[in-house]
Amino acid sequence: DQQVKQNSPSLSVQEGRISILNCDYTNSMFDYFLWYKKYPAEGPTFLISISSIKDKNEDGRFTVFLNKSAKHLSLHIVPSQPGDSAVYFCAGTDSGNTPLVFGKGTRLSVIA
Amino acid sequence: KAGVTQTPRYLIKTRGQQVTLSCSPISGHRSVSWYQQTPGQGLQFLFEYFSETQRNKGNFPGRFSGRQFSNSRSEMNVSTLELGDSALYLCASSFSGETEQYFGPGTRLTVT
């Protein structure tokens, strides 16, 4: 039972354009969501998060949108840079101390 | 401030053997979580330790176990290794289990 789904295993975008990574969840108890970025041979690093009381959170080039009714969130990267090429994981949690549940990841390739 | 460290970084074991992996969290962090990452499966939660007590456990067989020491360092053990245990094992720490966790670089375990 996959509670967090990232249906696109890979995405290729041109440098300077917008990258949109999508994530769906099924657990209606989830009230906090995070995006992590992972480079090869490194551990995931925290990128941005959003609480279910918001529908948008922005940090520089990164914006996360949350649509609670659709149980869907997306990460927008504008403008995309070659250094953004990595695997992006979406994760959700019931912030009452339950473990993070991760999606399978989306590999983003930003082409110069 | 030093990050999360994991040792060893790479390990090759034979089916049936056992293995112990080590994780040193960021100084001051008391929560340590372990995850298994396999190709196409994302990060799957193994267990979380806080103040030397297992606080959460994922859906893994009893061959997977862990512990945490008084200095917050943690070890995980896998007994009777199977080929399917080949994976990247990631450790993450936080002050007290907050959702934003800091990951180590992982230990790549290969079972032959």
Record keyword descriptors for this entry:
heterodimer, A: 112 residues, mainly beta, 6-stranded mixed β-sheet, 5-stranded antiparallel β-sheet, 11 strands, B: 112 residues, 7-stranded mixed β-sheet, 4-stranded antiparallel β-sheet
Q: Could you tell me the radius of gyration of chain A in angstroms?
A: 13 Å
* Fraction of residues in helix of chain A: under 10%
Parts with pLDDT < 50 across at least 5 consecutive residues of chain B: none
Round the mean pLDDT of chain A to the nearest integer and report it: 94
Largest sheet of chain A, if any? Answer: 6 strands, mixed
Looking at the structure, what is the overall shape of chain A?
Answer: globular
Total count of helical runs of at least 4 residues of chain A: 0
The value of Rg of chain B in angstroms is 13 Å
Order of helices and strands of chain B: EEEEEEEEEEE
- Our count of helices of chain B gives 0
Biggest interface reads: A-B, 25 and 24 residues
Structural class designation of chain A: mainly beta
